[in-house]
TrEMBL record:
Source organism of this protein record: Sphingobacterium suaedae
Enzyme class: hydrolase
Coiled coil: none
Enzyme Commission number: 3.2.1.51
Keywords annotated in UniProt: Glycosidase, Hydrolase, Signal
Organism taxonomic ancestry: Bacteria, Pseudomonadati, Bacteroidota, Sphingobacteriia, Sphingobacteriales
Source domain of life: Bacteria
Stated role: Alpha-L-fucosidase is responsible for hydrolyzing the alpha-1,6-linked fucose joined to the reducing-end N-acetylglucosamine of the carbohydrate moieties of glycoproteins.
Family: Belongs to the glycosyl hydrolase 29 family.
Name of this protein: alpha-L-fucosidase
Occurrences of domain Glycoside hydrolase family 29 N-terminal (ranges): 15-339
Residues of the full protein shown: 12 to 453 of 593
């Protein structure tokens, strides 16, 4: 009974529509954290206070910066070199299929030319540049899906929004919070969903179910109604805070940098960073390796999930070299081996793990890909858990695939591989079946 309940609980996320079909095929997207905090570069008046998560985009909260002083960061933007089209091209080169940009992060600053208040990047900087509009145009030009991050819960600019301990705003009553919701959040969402063409998704960021927050269910339902009315194809992520029901939520967002641990039937993704901070930090020390990013992406696809990988451009629009080089490597690999990622899902193998890497398959079930992170020194790749016998097994090399010989006994497949792995990051073995018999295992 418990098992049945679990299955029902996860199966209903995407039951009512196929809005999210493109998202399930995409598997890989770009997150962009860019805002006033990018200009602070993780340092405030010579100090980099260690506080809680230590994220550069939390600098206003961490350093208790006043609204006016924080707003003055807008003067540090270098508009000549800011070109959102370059971000879109970088995402495209990296093999990413969608971009989510912080239209308004926790600091409450709108990146677009909002008519709701004056606390926006175009107004504070005096540039008049609407970067969200430029993003929307560039995405349309290059066939890239565009989504908006919108911080609906936390807003350190608005006196009546949520800031955890109300250390910046003082105590907020339900009535006051509702005033923020009706007068700022909903009207801004309306602008974003009206003035920028097709929006592929709205990405909210609240990591607590609404019952444990200041939100009333009806308030969040107003946001859903607005999105469904203005953009019927727009996806909504689970961090809105409402239950994961198809009425409200189109895909699940796991924790920040939290990767899948079991196969999920409904669409899901992990938002992840290359660095530690999401926003630009001039003293960033924690860069993930390219190999680690490959494993994160492929491991998620093998569990039917996706990966939204973040960049934090500087206030002059440039992207740190560390991010660019990793994205280039990921993109070059996907260019060659993308058939094993896009439109792929996983093979349910229960608790079976392979020490060499991860398995994906095309959704019609007839092609299975072995992603080898650790090349076997004894030149024997051992695959357990698939009973069907492949028609052919090939090593993808980037040019002509190379046939591999194999033996099979029951669910145990032994593939002979050459001594040299063809790819320095992830080598791919393609197994083609006439008809594959995959036992669904939970
Ligand atoms: O936008 C990125 C982050 O800025 C945002 N989500 C990603 C996508 C995010 N950062 N932190 N969190 C979400 C959760 C952090 C919660 C806490 Fe705290 C911060 C726990 C401890 C420090 C705030 C302050 C809540 C408790 C104390």
């Amino acid at each position: 009974l418990m098992l049945l309940f679990l299955q029902l609980a996860t199966a209903n996320v995407n039951a009512q529509n196929n809005r999210s079909a493109w998202f399930e095929d995409a598997r890989f997207g770009m997150f962009i954290h860019w805002g006033l905090y990018s200009a602070a570069e993780g340092i405030w008046k010579g100090e980099n206070l260690r506080y809680a998560n230590n994220y550069a985009e939390w600098i206003r909260y961490r350093n208790r910066i006043s609204k006016e002083e924080y707003g003055a960061l807008a003067q540090r933007f270098v508009w000549d070199s800011i070109d959102p089209e370059q971000w879109v091209l970088l995402a495209k080169q990296a093999g990413m299929k969608y971009i989510i940009i912080t239209s308004k992060h926790h600091d409450g600053v709108a990146l677009w030319d909002t008519q709701v208040g004056n606390y926006s990047l175009p107004k504070l900087s005096g540039s008049g540049r609407d970067v969200i509009k430029e993003m929307a145009d560039a995405c349309r030009k290059h066939g890239m899906k565009l989504g908006f991050y919108y911080s609906h819960w936390i807003d350190w600019e608005h006196p009546y929004a949520w800031d955890h301990n109300q250390e910046l705003t003082g105590h907020v009553t339900d009535e006051q919070f509702n005033q923020y919701w009706q007068e700022k959040a909903l009207p801004q969402l309306r602008e974003l969903l009206t003035n920028y063409g097709d929006i592929a998704m709205m990405w909210f960021d609240m990591w607590i179910p609404y019952q444990h927050t200041i939100f009333k269910k009806e308030q969040l339902e107003q946001a859903v109604a607005l999105i469904r009315e203005l953009q019927p194809n727009c996806l909504i992520n689970s961090r809105l805070g409402l239950p994961t029901d198809a009425k409200y939520v189109d895909f699940e967002t796991l924790g920040d940098n939290q990767f899948g641990s079991s196969y999920k039937q409904h669409p899901w993704e992990t938002p992840g960073t290359i660095a530690h901070s999401w926003g630009y930090n001039g003293q960033e020390k924690e860069w993930k390796s390219t190999g680690q990013l490959f494993e994160s992406l492929i491991s998620n696809v093998a569990l039917n999930g996706g990966f939204t990988l973040n960049i934090g451009p500087r206030a002059d629009g440039t992207v740190p070299y560390e991010s660019i080089s990793r994205l280039h490597d990921l993109g070059a690999w996907l260019q060659q081996y993308g058939e094993s990622v896009y439109g792929n899902t996983g093979v349910r193998l229960g608790s079976i793990q392979h020490d060499w890497g991860k398995i994906t398959r095309t959704t019609d079930d007839n092609v299975v890909y072995l992603h080898v992170f650790n090349w076997p020194l004894d030149r024997l790749l051992r695959v357990t858990g698939i009973k069907s016998k492949p028609r052919k097994v090939e090593l993808l090399t980037g040019s002509t695939p190379r046939a591999l010989s194999f033996t099979q006994q029951g669910p145990l497949l032994h593939i002979q591989v050459p001594q040299q792995q063809p790819d320095p990051y992830v080598s791919v073995v393609r197994m083609t079946y006439d008809q594959i018999d995959l036992e669904p295992r939970i």
